[in-house]
Amino acid sequence: MNTSIYDKTAKGREEIATRKHQLAPRLRTLLVLIDGRKTEEELLRNVAGLGLTAGALTELLAGEFIVLSTSYVSLAEAPAAAPPEPEPEQVKQPVAAQVQQFQSLYNFFNKTIKSTIGLRGFTLQLKVEKASSVDDFRELRMPYLEAVQKAKGNDTAAALALQLDLLLDTAY
Fold it and tell me: Organism's domain of life (predicted)?
């Protein structure tokens, strides 16, 4: 069991913010999940559905997007500490579900912008590429639907709105 913990470097944070280094989408997804708290095992478990392995972490290390932060200390070795604070009552989606929802939304926007709006959707497509969370996609909902309505009419916009709302509200 590998208990190494990784954290983003300045270059890794820059890639998340600007996509300057054109990291492959699957590696970028893994980079987004790296937070300096999850062990290597947890990270790989969360991205197993994407076909990523420890080699992906090695690739991020070699590209200097991440750095080995520390190794997890087992409970037997850890000094006694105050009991952990109770978690908030708000239920969060598991990280793997968030990744799947993000990718579904990304694919939906890419597919439908090209087929319904065409070249007029170029700036909207750039915003989709910059999106780094499901909340970013929620903010794109209205501009997207307005552009579809102008290009294809109310019926197409209404049908796509239903599909988009299902993806935005889905808790995989």
Answer: Bacteria
Residue 57 burial by CB count (10 A; 0-12/13-18/19+): exposed, middle or buried?
buried
pLDDT in tens, 84-129: 555 554 445 567 778 888 888 999 998 999 889 988 889 898 998 8
Residue 164, CA distances (Å) to 98, 114, 142, 149 in order: 16, 15, 11, 14
Do 161 and 99 lie in one domain? The reply is yes
| End-to-end alpha carbon distance in the chain | 28
Task: Count structural domains, the chain.
Answer: 2
Last residue of a domain, one of 33, 56, 71: 71
Phi, psi (deg, nearest 5) at residue 91: -90, 125
CA distance 141 to 52: 30
